[in-house]
Amino acid sequence: MTSVHSVLIKDLSLNFGSISVLKNLNIEVADGEFLVLLGPSGCGKSTLLNCIAGLLDISDGQIFIKGKNVTWEEPKDRGIGMVFQSYALYPQMTVEKNLSFGLRVAGLPAAEIQKRIAHAAEILQIGPLLNRKPAELSGGQRQRVAIGRALVRDVDVFLFDEPLSNLDAKLRSELRVEIKRLHHKLANTMIYVTHDQIEALTLADRIAVMKGGLIQQLDDPLTIYNRPRNLFVASFIGSPA
Ligand code: ADP
Ligand code: MG
């Protein structure tokens, strides 16, 4: 039953000490779906994403990816790729090395590594940048490389944590289009954290609106916008009418 879902979150809770940050969350993400986690700062979006990635141990519940219980799996064994707000590139390495590093550590053959880098470079249009260092790139170019690092790993699920929030408005809308294009092309599952309503409405198949570690509403963008379930959702994203 779980295999029809790309990501299944069951009764997930997370406490930091005595503070309950995520409260019994249940989310089913369909295969190939673009799910946006939307909510104000501090509502638990990054914490939830980090739980899915395996970067935080959860206090209660279970996480399944592609039907497999990964609750206690290492991050590297979960079939996920993560793109953060800060680019998290290795400053001393060229773009090509940044892309290939994890693959070399994993022991992939050189020819396969080259193939994957060429594929990512083409999709993300970063071919001309492969020999540059991160310091020689613009913010938008760095973020493309960061996405490329997830892409070359050939993962089932992409996790994005506010990848565009350090960029100016023009670049943000350009990369929004880029990410949408990437999703259409790859057709894999994406879970995307943002506090930006426009980003959520334009990217998402469905939006989970969060507040205080709880999901207030999980619906497609039009439903959220036109029929917000409560005052919080209405004031945060809903139609002004
Ligand atoms: P968001 O990404 O939605 O802005 P976070 O997931 O970063 O929110 O944080 C959710 C809540 O958990 C916040 O109240 C934050 O202060 C708290 N929190 C996050 N990380 C820790 C931590 N390591 N220890 C204690 N509290 C934390
Ligand atoms: Mg955050």
UniProtKB/TrEMBL annotation:
<dbReference type="GO" id="GO:0008643">
    <property type="term" value="P:carbohydrate transport"/>
</dbReference>
<comment type="similarity">
    <text>Belongs to the ABC transporter superfamily.</text>
</comment>
<dbReference type="GO" id="GO:0055052">
    <property type="term" value="C:ATP-binding cassette (ABC) transporter complex, substrate-binding subunit-containing"/>
</dbReference>
<keyword id="KW-0547">Nucleotide-binding</keyword>
<keyword id="KW-0067">ATP-binding</keyword>
<dbReference type="GO" id="GO:0005524">
    <property type="term" value="F:ATP binding"/>
</dbReference>
<dbReference type="GO" id="GO:0140359">
    <property type="term" value="F:ABC-type transporter activity"/>
</dbReference>
<feature type="domain" description="ABC transporter">
    <location>
        <begin position="7"/>
        <end position="237"/>
    </location>
</feature>
<protein>
    <submittedName>
        <fullName>ABC transporter ATP-binding protein</fullName>
    </submittedName>
</protein>
<keyword id="KW-0813">Transport</keyword>
<dbReference type="GO" id="GO:0016887">
    <property type="term" value="F:ATP hydrolysis activity"/>
</dbReference>
